[in-house]
């Protein structure tokens, strides 16, 4: 089968399309015929040998002890090595794909959707009527965050560039701030929750727009390790002295939450936004596009 593989060269790791052995499902795993996968920052930051985590496809074989699915089922979720014609995934990391949702849209959902859902619900404890500001509202996590926050009954403000204002508004943001024209940290509004998907502002700047008991959740981070550590240490140092809370978080793989995403997509409450699609043999170009910071929402690899 064909698969994207990072190969070591004299100039560094290069993504190549190679013929590799088709995987065999282990206990509790299914073999998927991959129909689509989507790109995440880990695919270009870590450059693990077999990239691709978000996946959508059809179950074609079952390992032992599999009870949740049968051959022919259309599913989405997370696995390793999704940029390939076939991939194995644990049944506990998959959910049924709604019939009304394409494989491409389903593949766009897992990591970004779980991050948005768990951040707003579990870490932010967002309630109806509360005011939430989403920095990076046109990105992968951001486009899910706007829709999920709206479904919770929150008053949503999104921050994005000029080209994405109408997109963010169409997703349900009641107010959109164009960061090329206005600095959201100088805004007169104060928010119950700030979800930062970008990591381009200091904690002091973000604190200005939080209410007295506001929370700032940081899902995005600067690209260099030193800046990440500095933000972590500062957030930790401030926490005992402020009613405002600053938290970094990473989504956890929970099948129940994948099922929630499946229900939200099936009901049309959440509609994944896809910026571009690349065939498998152009996966390197897709990753370069995302790494270059040009993408809005999600970029998908099709098989």
Which keywords apply here?
seven-stranded mixed beta sheet, globular, alpha/beta, 15 strands, Quinone Oxidoreductase, Chain A, domain 1, 27% helix, 303 residues, single chain, six-stranded parallel beta sheet, Rossmann fold
Shape: globular
Strand content: 25-35%
The biggest beta sheet is recorded as: 7 strands, mixed
Mean pLDDT level:
93
Beginning-to-end CA distance, first to last residue: 11 Å
Which value, in Å, is the CA radius of gyration? Answer: 20 Å
The CATH architecture assignment of the largest domain turns out to be Alpha-Beta Complex
CATH class of the largest domain: Alpha Beta
Kindly state the percentage of residues in helix. Answer: 25-40%
What is the CATH superfamily classification of the largest domain?
Medium-chain alcohol dehydrogenases, catalytic domain
Tell me what you see in this structure.
- By secondary structure, the chain is of the alpha/beta class.
- The protein has 2 domains: 2-109 and 272-302, Quinone Oxidoreductase, Chain A, domain 1 (Alpha-Beta Complex), CATH 3.90.180.10; 112-248, NAD(P)-binding Rossmann-like Domain (Rossmann fold, 3-Layer(aba) Sandwich).
- Helices cover 27% and strands 31% of the residues.
- It has 9 helices and 15 strands.
- The chain has helices at 42-45, 103-107, 110-123, 140-151, 165-170, 203-207, 225-238, 255-266, 283-291, and strands spanning 2-9, 12-19, 29-38, 54-62, 74-78, 86-90, 94-96, 131-135, 155-160, 175-178, 191-196, 210-218, 245-248, 274-279, 298-302.
- Strands 3, 4, 5, 6, 7, 14 and 15 form a 7-stranded mixed β-sheet that branches. Strands 10-9-8-11-12-13 form a 6-stranded parallel β-sheet.
- Strand 14 (274-279), helix 9 (283-291) and strand 15 form a beta-alpha-beta unit.
């Amino acid at each position: 089968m064909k698969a994207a593989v990072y190969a070591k060269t004299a100039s560094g790791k290069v993504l190549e399309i190679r013929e590799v052995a088709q995987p065999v499902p282990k206990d509790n795993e299914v073999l998927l015929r991959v129909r689509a996968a989507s790109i995440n920052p880990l695919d270009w930051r870590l450059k693990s040998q077999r990239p691709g985590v978000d996946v959508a496809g059809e179950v074609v074989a079952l390992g032992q002890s599999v009870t949740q699915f049968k051959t022919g089922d259309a599913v989405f979720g997370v696995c390793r090595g999704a940029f390939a014609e076939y991939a194995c995934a644990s049944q506990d990391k998959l959910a049924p794909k709604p019939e009304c949702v394409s494989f491409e849209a389903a593949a766009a959902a897992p990591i970004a959707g779980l991050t948005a859902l768990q951040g707003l619900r579990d870490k932010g404890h967002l309630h109806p009527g509360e005011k939430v500001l989403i920095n990076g509202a046109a990105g992968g996590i951001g486009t899910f965050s706007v829709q999920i926050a709206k479904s919770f009954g929150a008053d949503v403000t999104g921050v994005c560039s000029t080209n994405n204002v109408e997109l963010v508004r169409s997703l349900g943001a009641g107010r959109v701030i164009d960061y090329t024209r206005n600095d959201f940290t100088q805004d007169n509004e104060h928010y119950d929750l700030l979800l930062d998907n970008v990591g381009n502002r200091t904690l002091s700047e973000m604190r200005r727009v939080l209410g007295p008991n506001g929370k700032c959740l940081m899902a995005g981070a600067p690209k260099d390790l030193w800046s990440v550590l500095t933000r972590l240490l500062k957030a930790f140092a401030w926490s005992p002295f402020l009613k405002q809370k600053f938290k970094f978080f990473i989504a956890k793989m929970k099948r129940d939450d994948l099922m929630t995403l499946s229900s939200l997509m099936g009901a049309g409450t959440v509609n994944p936004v896809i910026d571009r699609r690349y065939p498998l043999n152009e996966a390197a170009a897709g990753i370069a596009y995302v790494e270059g910071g040009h993408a809005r929402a999600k970029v998908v690899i099709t098989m």
